[in-house]
Inverse folding.
């Protein structure tokens, strides 16, 4: 896995990144730090990555268990340290999983497996942050 991050140059605190899979991502700093708020902050990208990694796991685990999962959303809330380095200290992930006749026990198991075993991002962030999860199951129409 690889990526390249490049500064957009003088007069900005924005950057763009090329991923090894051929995608582009823009990032920008907060206005108080010289950015113009035109794209996500790098730390927001880390949080997005953790949410994406874990949601991917949950969907895959449920699909492999032949559950009829039709939607998965994860809402993340994080707190950061007050002093540098301002690492994440708490992250809460709330999953909303939608499907047909989904078993809450199966969804809980999928969330736990992602959190404890499969999601590299949350396991890594768990070294500095208390990562907690919750979930709800919605029946699809």
């Amino acid at each position: 896995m690889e990526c390249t991050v490049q500064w957009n140059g003088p007069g900005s605190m924005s950057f763009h990144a090329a991923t090894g899979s051929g995608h582009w991502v823009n990032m920008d700093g907060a206005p108080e730090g010289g950015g113009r708020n035109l794209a996500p902050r790098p730390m927001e990208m880390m949080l997005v990555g953790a949410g994406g990694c874990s949601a991917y796991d949950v969907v895959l685990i449920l699909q492999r268990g032949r559950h009829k999962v039709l939607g998965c959303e994860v809402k993340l809330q994080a707190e950061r340290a007050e002093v540098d380095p301002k690492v994440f200290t708490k992250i809460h992930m709330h999953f909303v999983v939608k499907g047909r006749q989904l078993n809450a026990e199966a969804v809980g198991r999928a969330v736990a497996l992602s959190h404890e075993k499969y999601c590299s991002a949350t396991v890594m962030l768990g070294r500095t942050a208390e990562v907690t999860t919750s979930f709800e199951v919605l029946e699809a129409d």
